[in-house]
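User: Hey, quick favor. My workstation is busy. Could you predict this chain's structure for me?
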Amino acid sequence: MTTKTHFPFRVDVWDDRGDSIVQHVAGIDDFETAVATYWAACRRWPKAKVTLRQGARTVHKSWCCTRKDGK
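Assistant: No problem, here it is.
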């Protein structure tokens, strides 16, 4: 039996600038489980920048981008 290393979804915690991953929380096969894991990570680390991604596509992120005019 081999260990699975590739998963369609991943939950990560990013540095304060949102440039680098500081912690890989989980790799998940199922979308609904991935969403639940994302929200659990957001509750666990409320001030952290957390993402749920499917490959290069960002499905959810815990911080939102602000417009250049600050609104």
